[in-house]
Design brief:
The complex is a heterodimer of chains A (243) and B (387). Helices cover 39% and strands 25% of the residues of chain A. Chain A is α/β, with parallel strands linked by helices. Chain A has a six-stranded mixed β-sheet, sandwiched between helices. Chain A has a four-stranded antiparallel β-sheet with strand order 2-1-4-5, with helices on one face. In chain A, helix 3 (91-101) packs across helix 4 (106-120), helix 3 runs parallel beside helix 5 and helix 8 crosses helix 9 (228-237). Chain A is globular. Chain B is built from 17 helices and four strands. In chain B, helix 2 (20-52) packs parallel to helix 11 and helix 8 runs parallel beside helix 12. Chain B has 387 residues and is mainly alpha-helical. Classes of the chains: A alpha/beta (243), B mainly alpha (387). The A-B interface holds A 48, 50-52, 70-71, 73-74, 76, 78-80, 82-89, 93, 97-98, 100-103, 129, 142, 145-146 and B 3-4, 7-8, 11, 14-15, 18-19, 210-222, 382, 385-386.
Amino acid sequence: MIEVKQLHKRFGSVVAVEDVSFSIAPGEIVGLLGPNGAGKTTTMRIVSGLVMATAGSVNVGGIDVLVDPQKVQAQLGVMPDGGGLYQRLTARENIAYFGELQGLSTSVVAERIAALSETLGMQTIIDRRAEGFSHGERTKVALARALVHQPQYVLLDEPTNGLDVLTTRAVRKLLLQLKSEGRAVIFSSHLMHEVNHVCDRAIVIANGRVAASGTLEQLMSQSGQPEIEDAFVHLAYGEGHLA
Amino acid sequence: MIRVLGSIVRKELKDGLRDKRALVTWFFMPLFFLALMYGMVLFILSVQEKSQAFKLSVQGAEYAAPLVSWLREEGVTVVEVEGDPVALVNNLEEEFVLVIAGDFPGKFANFDDATLELIFDRSRNSIQGKVNRVKYLIRQWSGRIGSLRLIARGVSPRVANPVTVVDVDVANDQKLASRMFALIPIMLVMTIFTASIGLSVDMMAGEREKHSLEPLLLNPVSRELILLGKWLAAILCTAVILLITSIAIFFLVPTLPLERLGLQYEVTVLHLVQTTLISIPLICLATAIQLLVSIFAKSFKEAQSYISLLVMVPMLLAYYVLFADVTGGWQIWVPILGPLMLMEGIFVGEPGSVQEWGAAVGVSMAAALIVAAFLVKQLKREKIVYG
């Protein structure tokens, strides 16, 4: 379980997150939806122990992130927005480095890389240096890097942002595989239809607050909009923005 | 934990070695200084050899054989020239010509007023020194002949020469050459402070610039350990380059044509061991400072411009030690300055006392640890990770 309770985060006078609460069970894929700047990334950073909340608590698998962030991080697989690969290392070296930092042995790392490379279709790029990678290739490597230690909880920040159809499908496939293995996945997006394909439910965040949450059907009926996109706009931005 | 530390160090060195741009900065300083040192020796040699090859064009050398042979003894290359001497000088074929007239031997033998003509163009400034030298040599010869004539008449030469000026030239070439070896410690210190700039900047500012710091910190590894790994990588890089530089000096100095300068200089194994020991705290401090400066920079370029300013500090301190001639005193307690003094001492044969070594090593090492602690604190700031 990931349990987030009454999270607040202030950067100086700017309020980034204001009273966010949700919980995610194993085997669940949850979409964290919201416009740019709504507080999705900040929420994820707090959950992963990189940013300290001003108030509220985060509990991952029974461990308070404030008490033992490293133990939380060992259970988490996080793909932050922007990738951040080492350009002069190959895809394999990038993934292996993080595997070693997670405490895996060389042989286990090699096995995992082989499996992930298969799932994500990275065989042709696995031994190439990251400097020439396309956006999609970078995303795949960053994703593999986040999953190399087989984390129980997976946080993905905008994983399908700017990907082509085939890569998006590969990512979706991977998410469903994680779900079937009983792992919990949170992924953020600013596009509602992304969530439509894989998510069990979605949490809509706007202005640092949870605006709505539930299954897609619930969200649509709650907003009174027949279209997914309209429902999202209605919930995230308010009625005035509907076309 | 040791395994994770090993992974970090290995990754950083591998990453650094693949950075062709930064690799140049790894070896720039040592190469520059080695070339400078070699160039200086060769320059001094060529200046010295040129001054020995002093050429004098003469007409009528046969009329004053004793003078000509004396000039040759003084290292002057006497060359006979034909033709009108005035025309030769005017046409720039000769810089100056010494003309010995046919009546010279007769006048000389009769104690008459024997004259020589030195033909030159006074408007040409570049030859003044040479002309003066010719005049000086001839005057000297003349003085000796005069003295001999007085002695032959039973008169002391001192009657004719009440005052003598003796030249004591302190700006000799040997001194200049020995100065050159004071460059060795400066070279070593500059190597220590510059060798891993590229690597340090890339490990901190580069990591921030390419947004890889956030994913790195998402691993269950303490910031202290990550920093220690990066620090060790920078220390190793600097140490290896310093070692290569030291070995290069060790083998280069004996190949310098020092004996032609009448100079003896040895770089011994003891020198190497002592400098290596005193280098360790300096390396630790230098790399920690590099990392600290680059953590505040948001980009590779920004960090490099900060650090190039920072490099001035050890360089100025090194020159201070070299020219202020400090020994003992409070300076030994100043980080960087203390080890620098000891290093300078090693090469002039004054290796310093055990207490001095303890003080210098201890203070610089403590300073390095303080910088490292401050670094860890910075790495825990959200502003540094995301700023």
